[in-house]
Amino acid sequence: ESQTGIIEGGDAKSLVMDAFNDAYLANDMTGQEAIFTEDAVANVNGQEMSPAEMMAAFMGGREFYNDIKNSDRATATFIFDDGDTYTSTWFDWEGTSKSSEVVVGNPVHAWFKWDGDKVSEVTYIFDSAEYVANMGAATE
Known about the structure:
Elements (H helix, E strand, L loop, with lengths): L4 E4 L3 H14 L10 E9 L2 E3 L1 H10 L4 E16 L4 E13 L5 E13 L2 E8 L3 H5 L7
Parallel strand pairs: 2-7
Antiparallel strand pairs: 1-4, 2-3, 4-5, 5-6, 6-7
């Protein structure tokens, strides 16, 4: 059935997601686990893991990339009439490979499902082929 509801931008939940993305860019995810429920599930391109494992994987990519940026970010919270609430964020990820010096760019979409004031599910979707292909052994 068709879902209806409202979309908000600049709301408290959208600001939490922007702060999550900003923490990644600042290379410091300290305290970000507090936004998730105890039993939250993360999915990154279909791979299920805990939010802690997801954050560790994202931070681990910094071993292979410099000059990481998120540009053209848009974030909004969708409050459906059935009570489900999701915050979605879209951005263009960019980083320079430490091994190949290739600048890799990739559109990213993520959604966070809220259970009250905590996130119970998160999904990130992006094409990882070029990202993985340019990891190689870091030269630094």
